[in-house]
Amino acid sequence: MKLVFLGAPGCGKGTIAQIISKKLKIPHISTGEILRNEVAKKTEIGKKIGKIMAKGNFPPNKYSIAVTEKRISQKDCKNGYILDGFPRNSVQAKALSKFTRVDAVIDLDLDEKKIIDRLSARRVCQKCKRQYNLKTSMRPKKDSLCDVCKIQLVKRSDDDPKIIKHRMVVYHQLTQPIIKYYKKQNKLFKIDASGEPDQIAKRVLKKL
After folding, report:
1. Cα distance between residue 127 and residue 147, in whole Å
2. If pLDDT is split at 50, 70 and 90, which confidence band does 137 have?
3. E strands along the chain, which residues?
4. Residue 154 · residue 126 · CB < 8 Å
5. 3-state DSSP call for residue 124?
6. Nearest to 192, CA basis, from 112, 110, 119
7. pLDDT band for position 22 (50/70/90)?
8. Is it the case that residue 19 has pLDDT exceeding 90?
9. Going by C-beta distance under 8 Å and a sequence separation of 6 or more, which residues neighbour residue 201?
10. Which domains, ranges and CATH numbers included, belong to the chain?
């Protein structure tokens, strides 16, 4: 099954996608994570998009399209995949339709206040990239330490409340056309993204 996960930053796309990925045995592909790795490795793409992403803005379409197309062409995507963070606008949605078929689109819905609270408490391990949340069941066993790597967890630069609000505005401006695009194709399923990850994942699986 080929799935697209939509939802504002902080709605839990990545976490829910990982759970569904294990259930359906298909890879979870985070375009944002791929691009952040490019920035961390200081590749040519990374150098061009680093400052843009640090301000809470999305990188130019051509980079997101290129890394996503390359990733889903790999063997582990033969039986399907979950796209998390792509497409983010109508240009990317139309580009996606040219190199793959989408079976269903999951739109995770959560109000802005809950998103800001959730993202403000998010932490990530710089080594294994595992994500935690200090206010939910996803909190680390020991404060500010990765359960696996035992190193200090950090807060992403774009999880500052002011940047979060900016990202929300940008997200809604760009994503509304995508929602309409997939709704016309009868592929869109809106899911309540409040509560614990396992509860949300059950709602998603029920729709699928």
Report:
1. 12
2. confident
3. 2-7, 28-30, 81-84, 104-109, 122-125, 131-133, 153-154, 188-192
4. yes
5. strand
6. 110
7. very high
8. yes
9. 16, 19, 20, 23
10. 2-110+168-207 (3.40.50.300)
Contact 6, 175 (CB under 8 A): yes
Average pLDDT of span 111-129: 88
Sign of the Cα pseudo-torsion (154, 158, 162, 165, in order): negative
Q: Fill in the amino acid letter for 158.
A: D
**Please, what is the average pLDDT of the chain?**
90
| Residue 152 to residue 104: CA distance in whole angstroms | 38
8-state DSSP, 145: B
- Token reading at 103: 């079976």
What amino acid is encoded at 29 in this protein?
Answer: I
CA distance 119 to 155: 9
